[in-house]
């Protein structure tokens, strides 16, 4: 089985994840570039296009080279190598599945966004402008990751493979994180509106 080939070979497993991870940054960069080149006239994202706060500054400034990116690349690769060396095959399959399935899910989102931005850049079939509050972007992301979590869980039930369980767990954790971040962001936005309203009232 192809999956066993990767799980038994640390370098192949880490190499595949590293490839997907690099493509993730490249596709994010590409989408952000198209967004700034014209698609932004139809879509507005409060807080920026990138949802991961760790990379928001790099993506907003369209940095091709990111020290943060390479730090995480080396750090996670090292952790995976150490985990594989322990000989705990099923545990490695779970963690590696978590990392790979998260990347696959993110890549599906990239392909969709690139297609939408491609047409929006030239106003091809797209009219008007939509503004997304940051909390809504996070909420929609949470729903999407939750959907993929259920899908990977279904595959785990069918196949009984810890790789799929890792994917379901990873997507669920990220879905919950984005949900909590969404609620916090919405609360901060509402408090800001209340504060502005209160200040305005006091000045009248």
Characteristic key phrases:
204 residues; mainly alpha; two-stranded parallel sheet; 7 helices; 2 strands; 78% helix; disordered C terminus
Oligomer: single chain
Counted up, domains total: 1
Estimate the strand proportion: under 5%
Number of helices: 7
> Can you write the helix and strand succession as a string?
HHEHHHEHH
Mean pLDDT: 89
Helix content: over 70%
SSE topology:
Elements: H1 2-8, H2 10-37, E1 43-45, H3 56-60, H4 67-85, H5 89-121, E2 130-132, H6 134-159, H7 162-203
Helix pairs in contact: 1-2, 2-4, 2-5, 5-7, 6-7
Describe, in plain words, how this protein is organized in 3D.
The chain has 204 residues and is mainly alpha-helical. It has one domain (2-203). The chain is 78% helix and 3% strand. It is built from 7 helices and 2 strands; from the N terminus they run ααβαααβαα. The protein has helices at residues 2-8, 10-37, 56-60, 67-85, 89-121, 134-159, 162-203; strands at residues 43-45, 130-132. Helix 2 (10-37) packs antiparallel against helix 4 and helix 5 packs across helix 7. The longest helix has 42 residues, at 162-203. The relative contact order is 0.13. The model is unreliable at 199-204 (pLDDT under 50).
In short:
Residues 199-204 have low confidence and may be disordered. This protein is mainly α. The chain contains 7 helices and 2 strands, in the order ααβαααβαα.
């Amino acid at each position: 089985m192809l999956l066993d080939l990767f799980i038994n070979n640390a370098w192949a497993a880490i190499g595949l994840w590293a490839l997907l991870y690099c493509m993730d940054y490249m596709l994010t960069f590409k989408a952000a570039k198209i967004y700034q080149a014209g698609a932004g006239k139809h879509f507005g994202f409060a807080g920026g296009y990138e949802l991961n706060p760790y990379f928001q500054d790099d993506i907003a400034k369209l940095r091709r080279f990111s020290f943060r990116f390479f730090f995480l690349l080396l750090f996670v690769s090292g952790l995976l190598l150490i985990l594989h060396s322990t000989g705990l095959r099923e545990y490695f399959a779970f963690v590696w599945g978590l990392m790979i399935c998260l990347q696959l899910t993110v890549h599906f989102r990239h392909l969709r966004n690139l297609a939408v931005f491609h047409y929006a850049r030239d106003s091809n079939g797209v009219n008007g402008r939509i503004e997304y509050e940051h909390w809504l972007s996070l909420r929609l992301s949470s729903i999407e990751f939750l959907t993929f979590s259920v899908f990977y869980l279904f595959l785990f039930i069918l196949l009984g493979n810890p790789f799929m369980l890792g994917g379901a767990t990873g997507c669920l954790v990220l879905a919950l994180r984005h949900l909590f971040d969404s609620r916090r962001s919405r609360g901060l936005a509402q408090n800001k509106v209340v504060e502005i309203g209160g200040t305005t009232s006091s000045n009248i």
